[in-house]
Q: What sequence folds into this?
């Protein structure tokens, strides 16, 4: 009989309040972002600093200067380096980052510089991996770089659709790097992902929206969601992921 797995749940959050809810719900680690609607961009200094001050679990800010693709200019690369130094100065345990070349390969040269700059922080290569041209070649390149994990949906929009590739990546990695399924990881999918892939770290956002508590709503903007709804995470939904995962050890 195999010993029970120690599962880790990482929650992607978009601000202080959603981070607080994720921590309350029992998250093991936070991927701290801004602009999750764009897939996540680097959060502000103030957000990172206050989360580091208030929460004890590892905070991994995403290092992504904009939404869109993962092909960055020299100036954007410089922005990423400065953001990494800021995270290091704030005492973050890790960062989440990824860079590609035009042909869909990992930008190993510039990623090497970022990983070196981030040391001793842990580095997760994010879902830029899902846009790589050759996933197994990319896997080896990322291992060579010294990244600790890869966040992936198996090169599909949702991890449940890419479950076969995730399983193959986990088996090929063979303990050399952590393969962490993410995208569409919810209560109704996480147990299947755990059993079918063999992975023990999972990434979820569980993002919802709630109405603003503003009493005055300008009539010309009342129907615009950006003005009068806020991001929300239900702590109980984080707890439910843990409950489902524990069934994999039964």
A:
């Amino acid at each position: 009989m195999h010993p029970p797995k120690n599962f880790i749940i990482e929650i992607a959050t978009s601000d202080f309040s959603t981070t607080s809810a994720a921590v309350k719900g029992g998250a093991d680690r936070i991927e701290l972002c801004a602009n999750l609607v764009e897939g996540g961009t680097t959060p502000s200094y103030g957000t990172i600093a206050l989360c580091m001050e208030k929460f004890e679990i590892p905070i991994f800010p995403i290092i992504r200067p904009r939404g869109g693709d993962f092909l960055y200019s020299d100036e954007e690369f410089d922005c990423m380096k400065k953001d990494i130094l800021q995270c290091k100065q704030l005492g973050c345990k890790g960062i989440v980052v990824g860079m590609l070349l035009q042909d869909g390969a990992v930008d190993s040269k510039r990623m090497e510089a970022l990983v070196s700059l981030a040391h001793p922080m842990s580095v997760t290569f994010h879902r830029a991996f899902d846009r790589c041209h050759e996933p197994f070649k990319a896997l080896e390149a990322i291992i060579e770089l010294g990244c600790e994990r890869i966040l992936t949906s198996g090169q599909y929009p949702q991890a449940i659709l890419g479950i076969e590739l995730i399983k193959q990546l986990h088996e090929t990695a063979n303990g050399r790097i952590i393969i962490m399924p993410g995208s569409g990881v919810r209560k109704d999918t996480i147990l299947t992902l755990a059993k079918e892939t063999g992975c023990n770290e999972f990434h979820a956002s569980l993002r919802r929206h709630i109405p603003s508590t503003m009493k005055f709503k300008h009539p010309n903007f009342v129907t615009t969601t950006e003005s009068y709804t806020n991001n929300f995470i239900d702590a109980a939904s984080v707890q439910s992921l843990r409950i489902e995962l524990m069934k994999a050890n039964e």
Summary: Residues 33 and 61 are 6 Å apart (CA to CA). The mean pLDDT is 95. The two ends are 11 Å apart (CA to CA). The first helix runs from residue 16 to 24.
